Amino acid sequence: MSDEKGLAKVGTLGQSGTVARYTAPELTMEIVKQFINPNVTDAEAYFFIQFCKGQALDPFRKEAYLIKYAGQQEPASIVIGYHNFLKRAEENPKYKGFKAGIIVLTVGKKVEYREGSFYVQGEGILGGWCEVYRTDRTQPFRSEVAFEEYVGRKKDGTITKQWITKPGTMIRKVPVAQAHRDAFPSELGRLYVAEEFAQAEEALPAYEVGKQAEIIVPEGMEAFGAPKQKTDPPKTTVAEGEKKPEGEGAGAGAAAPQGSTSQAGGGETKAAEGPKMASEPQLKKIGVMMSGLGKKADAERHEYTVHLLGLKECPKDKDGKDSLKGLTSRQASELITALDEAATAGGRE
Prior knowledge:
Blueprint (H helix, E strand, L loop, with lengths): L6 E6 L5 E5 L6 H8 L5 H14 L8 E4 L9 E4 L1 H9 L4 E11 L5 E5 L8 E11 L6 E6 H4 L10 H5 L1 H17 L1 H4 L2 E3 L66 E3 L6 E3 L8 H13 L5 H12 L19 H16 L5
């Protein structure tokens, strides 16, 4: 039984009245695409609805997020709250708990592994660790991550407030998520927590009932694969009869710069565009997904990339060295999709 405000009456408290508990609104394809994310496909919206129903999650209460931006080629990502992530693992009867903590550089310059997130002034946080236990395994699933790899930063390079005020708490959540994904790939293989993308839950998009969804990229959220906005350079026009400056392509004898194309008759010169290279958000997401699959060494990541994309050799950076920075935007998108599929299959190729 519920009233007109959507509050389900679930019991009584003595003689003082009823105890009310919020019940999530019924999600439909129209609600998801109008109020939550207008950029997703029907299939992604449907999967999100079924996921929320199965896990009893309410996106309007910041329990689950459907992340996809305009122009994004890779599939939408479902990001859930940290405790909801652990709750999903606990539903597996073979789950036996976990231990987690931080890696600290003590005042005496010693590296120390601590359970929890406690540290004192003067010590440095190097990273985080986690071990997940299953009843059908003799060894735990262990993950260790470096603080610098995941610390949240603003566009100007400064560290975000959450990572300044709660560094131990924030970095501890990252290996917890990674180790749980390794331990339960079927349940958690395609799920991530916000801290893995250098953002706290509070910085994720907030959705309001009755208000059209406005998908804005918050600071740091580029890690979710949001495309950078492209701005075209202003065109330079020359008024009729006005003499073009010497050396700007005026006249048939002017030589076009290497790698450019010129229109006949002394028209404007337009530089030929090469392939668009992978963006920083794409590379960061690839790094997160590679770590989730246990691919942490550069050589191992390069070999895995060649395998997944069917390349003859690893892409090269501008210095000619093997590097994922040599991926084109299209290759990066294909790699993200392939990594997503590998995670779903348990990371076993």
